[in-house]
Design brief:
It contains ten helices and nine strands. It is of the alpha/beta class. Strand 8, helix 9 (233-240) and strand 9 form a beta-alpha-beta unit.
């Protein structure tokens, strides 16, 4: 099998959706693939512990670092292809997620010409990630049960209203202690693996479509409230839906009683 370099200028949550392809490639060929992802994700360490990844290359942001995304993708692709050829990569692919009819997971398999024999997603965290998460939780809420919330994503239309997740978890799950990403810790404070370990230890989660919702699928954690904006709706969810069994309570409309309570504040 040819040495594989995957150009992957997609979001952090989409990186999780690449893990089945990486695993299947390794078990089918005995080789590890290399991946090229956005430079701004370097501190996230999303692939650092993945046993199926050889090299991680960081690229400029094709979406935001150029005059247009089209120009950005062309330049980044050309640069990565040149680097790949210089370093002995015989197969260089860049999965495109433009076709909304298909799962991103299956699109990744198709571009890499790999049979999807196992489709579950994975997250690989370290002992240090888990230790850091436990210490942070202890400082924040001691040993009390807590809920995990994310409100703001990288896409404004996907966001939850401010305060929504906290109120929802208090009302429907009876949780008084809440840890919210971006509020109780800055997203640059910990790598994404540590943040996922914080979420793993929560009693309930309220999330928008984001890296955290994809991570829940990868670690088998049920999502108590997963909001997909009507902008994307059920078609959007089907593109990122886990292809293995996991409970995700997806809603396409916000809880009206919570919205009314927020309006009073």
């Amino acid at each position: 099998m040819k040495k594989l370099l995957i150009l992957y200028p997609h979001g952090l949550g989409d990186c999780i959706l690449l893990t089945p392809t990486l695993r299947n490639y390794f078990f089918n060929t005995g080789n590890k693939a290399s991946v090229a992802i956005l430079e701004r994700f370097k501190s996230a360490k999303i692939f650092d512990n993945n046993p199926y990844v050889d090299n991680i290359i960081y690229t400029k942001d094709a979406w935001n670092d150029f005059d247009s995304p089209e120009e950005g993708f062309n330049i980044v692709k050309k640069q990565c292809e040149e680097w790949g050829k210089q370093n002995g990569y015989e197969k260089i692919v860049m999965p495109q997620h433009n076709d909304w009819r298909y799962s991103k997971i299956l699109i990744n398999f198709s571009y890499c010409d790999i049979k999807p024999t196992s489709v579950f997603t994975e997250i690989f965290t370290s002992d240090e990630d888990r230790k850091t998460a436990k210490n942070f939780i202890k400082q924040k809420v001691s040993n009390k049960p807590f809920g995990f919330v994310q409100t703001v994503t990288g896409r404004p239309l996907a966001n939850l209203p401010k305060g929504y997740g906290k109120l929802w978890l208090k009302k429907y799950k009876g949780l008084q202690n809440i840890i919210e990403a971006g509020i109780d810790f800055d997203i640059s404070q910990f790598n994404i693996n540590t943040q996922i370990e914080i979420m793993r230890l929560s009693s309930a989660v309220c999330l928008p479509d984001s890296v955290f919702s994809n991570a829940c699928g990868a670690i088998g954690k049920p999502i108590d409230h997963l909001y997909f904006s009507p902008t994307w709706g059920i078609k959007g969810y089907k593109r990122v839906e886990p292809l293995h069994s996991v409970r995700q309570n997806v809603v396409y409309e916000l809880d009206k009683s919570i919205i009314r309570e927020l309006e009073k504040i």
